[in-house]
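Per reviewer request, we include the raw input and output of the structure prediction for the construct analysed in the revised manuscript.
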Amino acid sequence: MAMLPIRVEDLRRIVEENKSLVVKVGDTYEISRPLALKLWSAFVSMVMEMGGSVREELKVEYASPEMVIVSVSCTVRVQDSEVRYCEIGEAYKSEGKENTLARTAYTRAMKRLLERMIGEDFINQVVHQLYPEGVKEVPASEKQKQLIKTLVQEGKLTREMVKEILGEDASLNQALKDNTLTFSQAKRLIDRALRRPANG
């Protein structure tokens, strides 16, 4: 069971009909926690209609006053098939979400989990249609840089991961030194380093 036979058009419609629940976080537009929960509820209902079941697990991977990183795992069972997915979500105080870091991190993890299970970045596509003005890229935060350095020292962030995200000829040390590492690149590096195997 690689991708679930879910009616993605129904999930798209939920995003479109709840535009007010798409919020601006920092320099980008994202779905809010209430909208993520609406999508999750619809997804679970669809799986149950197929006679299946869904089990969700939440784990805090990293927490500080500046940043929270969580992982959300989901086990879906339909008839004799079972599949497990896991995604990471993060939130930073620098984004202006000091009092809701955990909720924002959970929402991001849930969004990525839904898109991975469906096999299509349908949420991003709809949000981009609703807000086509695009996203302004911003530099990586100091806390992101510190965590990346720690992950490198611990051997969790490898050269292969850096090449995969920054490019074959890119130098992470140089990007950190020159302050050319972007916020989104840093998020992807952290996600990649902390992500647990889907079947682990």
